[in-house]
Design brief:
By secondary structure, this protein is of the alpha/beta class. Helices cover 45% and strands 13% of the residues.
Amino acid sequence: MAVQIGNIDLGEFPLLLAPMEDVSDPPFRYVCKQNGADMMYTEFISSEGLIRDAAKSIQKLDIFEYERPIGIQIFGSDIEHMREATEIATKAGPDLMDINYGCPVKQVACRGAGASLLQDIDKMVAMTKAVVEATHLPVTVKTRLGWDDNTKNVYEVAERLQDVGIKALTIHGRTRSQMYKGVADWTLIHQIKKNPRIQIPIFGNGDIDSPEKAAEWRLQYEVDGMMIGRAAIGYPWIFREIKHYFATGEHLEKPTIAERIDVCKTHLQKSMEWKGTRTGIFEMRRHYSNYFKGVPDFKEFRMKLVTAATVEEIMDILEQVDKKYALEMA
């Protein structure tokens, strides 16, 4: 049965790209979409930044037709500001609005936003209600199991947020105090999915890094879909690999050097189109080592790529990479 969020049809078992700060910008989303991501989100955007018209926050509202369906994710600690930010973000024309109640980093959580709202569920519910009422778009939420091991309250959160009108919930299988350490625990996600009161789609997130694990957890935890974050960094092929494994039970061939280079070029091209040549080249630098992770003796090329200042130089280095490894890894 197809998964629906409002009027959005996501197919039978959607794979979602997680919103990641400094990662899931339009160029990165483009290559993930090309490789099978069913739905994506912007980087999370500060409600305060949107209201103040901060350039960095406004730029994160950029979305393109090829990305649809896409959600804009916002976070904040002030209910009224979240309402205003929702109205601003809605005008950017996304397919849905998403609220971040999961971000564990200090700058966010210690300012009363992100995961810190797991310590004040009444406020979280009131904030969610304000966002739902401020937009005609479906509203979804991403959160964690709880603040720490003593307050795993996401079962209650799921029921109460559904009651105020959210259309889907993504749960990361860690508490805030775990940050990204340890192992994601999906058992509570499963309990929520099995709760007869819950009618909205439940997506699992955390530690999905291989087709086998995705297939195994799909059966074991019975979620409606999965959100993938860190495993997609430098490896957008994860989406197509998981889908292929679901369909056939077999592994897709790993991307060749030529494919890695190809995605690099596409990513760079999109980066320059979006931010201009100079900034586009600069921002691409943080991605090279991820795209060529595991390639032996790549350090010398990486150093060249992160210092190259023109497109011609970069293309020339990628050409050298192709020549060297196409023979070695064939």
